[in-house]
Amino acid sequence: MAELATIARPYAEALYRVAGANAAQLADQVDALAAVAAEPQVRQFAANPKVSAEQVFELFTSVIKSPLG
Questions:
Q1: Contact by Cβ (8 Å): 18, 50
Q2: Tens digits of residue pLDDT in 9-60
Q3: pLDDT of residue 37
Q4: CA 21, CA 66: separation in Å to the nearest integer?
Q5: How high is the pLDDT of residue 57?
Q6: Per-residue H/E/C for 39-58
Q7: d(Cα 17, Cα 9) in Å, to the nearest integer?
């Protein structure tokens, strides 16, 4: 599990730096994205090699009601 933390750390630090004063709003957006990504059907769709990154993005943005920054 330490390996996963090591991989995630630079991304978490970059996200924290970018968030600045909007950290609470960004945290809400990350929570919404995580909730969608946790759904097995979404994961299956995203793992399909015939599905493009744009299609996955469209799915996420259509499911999440609040605008993403």
A1: no
A2: 898 888 888 888 788 888 888 899 999 999 999 999 999 999 999 999 999 9
A3: 94
A4: 19
A5: 93
A6: CHHHHHHHHCCCCCHHHHHH
A7: 12
Distance CA 3, CA 29 (A): 25
DSSP character at residue 1 = -
Kindly report the pTM of this predicted structure: 0.68
Radius of gyration of the chain (CA): 14
The whole-angstrom separation of Cα 30 and Cα 23 is 10
Q: What is the DSSP letter of 31?
A: H
The pLDDT score that the predictor gives to residue 35 is: 93
CA dist., res. 53 & res. 31, Å (int): 20
